[in-house]
Amino acid sequence: MNTTWLKFKVWTKFTLISIVLIYLIVFVLANGSAVIDTELNFPLIKTYKRPNALIVLLLTGVFSIFGWWLFRTVFKTIRQLRDVRRRAHLERIEREHADMVAKAAKLQTRPDSTE
């Protein structure tokens, strides 16, 4: 019974991946010679006059992935800095509390003066 579901799952994945690959091949073949009539400027990189549409799509995808990665990294770093500050604050409070308890223990250990 388990092998039947496993086979179904494997063949479903294989079929979906095959469909996506066939679509990508057809897309590239159909748009291989397509050009964009406007000028495309990438600051500090290059200026394209009548660029190929596939190059525009590829560069847009690469820049968007890099942008999201940078965005995520910045917010992770901010979260880590907040966590470090919070931990340092808690450690300082624990040290101060331990010092107060130690001082209070010193004050409470007086010898009895009932003699």
> Which residues form runs of ≥5 with pLDDT under 50?
none
In this structure, how is the largest beta sheet organized? 2 strands, antiparallel
- Strand content bin: 5-15%
Which strand order do you get reading across the main beta sheet?
Answer: 1-2
Radius of gyration: 33 Å
What is the ordering of alpha helices and beta strands? HEEH
Which percent range fits the helix content?
over 70%
Instruction: Report the span from N to C terminus.
Output: 88 Å
Shape: elongated
Determine the structural class based on helices, strands and strand pairing: mainly alpha
Mean pLDDT: 88
Number of helices: 2
Number of E-type strands: 2
How would you portray this structure in words?
With 115 residues, this protein is mainly alpha-helical. It has a domain at 32-108. The chain has helices at residues 2-31, 53-108; strands at residues 39-42, 46-49. It has a two-stranded antiparallel sheet. The radius of gyration is 33 Å and the shape is elongated. 0% of the residues are buried.
Defining key terms:
115 residues; mainly alpha; 2 helices; two-stranded antiparallel sheet; 7% strand; 2 strands; 75% helix
Brief summary of the model shown:
By secondary structure, this protein is mostly helical. It contains two helices and two strands. Helix content is 75%, strand content 7%.
